[in-house]
Design goal:
Layout lengths: L1 H16 L10 H17 L4 H19 L3 H15 L1
C-alpha cells in the first residue's frame, strides 16, 4: 500500500513538473507561454556554459517560431529544449 502511494505521488509530481507536449501550441499566446515556461525552467537549472548557450539559442529559435505562427516547428523545438534540460 505504501509503495503504491509513493508511486502515485511520484507520477503526480512528474506530471505536474513536466509539461505534456501532446500537441503543438494552439495559438501564439500558448506558444509564447511555452517559451517563457521553458526559459524559466532553464534559468532554474545550473547548466554548464556550453549547454546554457545551446538552450538559450533554442529558446530564441522557439520565440521566433512563435512569432511567425510556426506552431508545429515550435513544438519540435520545445521538445529539443526539454531534452537538453534533462
Amino acid at each position: 500500500m505504501i509503495k503504491s502511494i509513493a508511486a502515485a505521488a511520484a507520477l503526480f509530481a512528474t506530471l505536474v513538473v513536466t509539461p505534456v507536449f501532446a500537441a503543438p501550441p494552439a495559438d501564439q499566446d500558448a506558444c509564447n507561454s511555452l517559451a517563457f515556461s521553458l526559459a524559466e525552467k532553464a534559468a532554474s537549472k545550473k547548466l554548464a556554459d556550453a549547454q546554457a548557450v545551446k538552450v538559450d539559442e533554442l529558446i530564441g529559435k522557439l520565440e521566433g517560431q512563435c512569432s511567425e505562427s510556426k506552431f508545429a516547428d515550435a513544438d519540435a523545438t520545445a521538445k529539443e529544449i526539454e531534452a537538453a534540460l534533462k
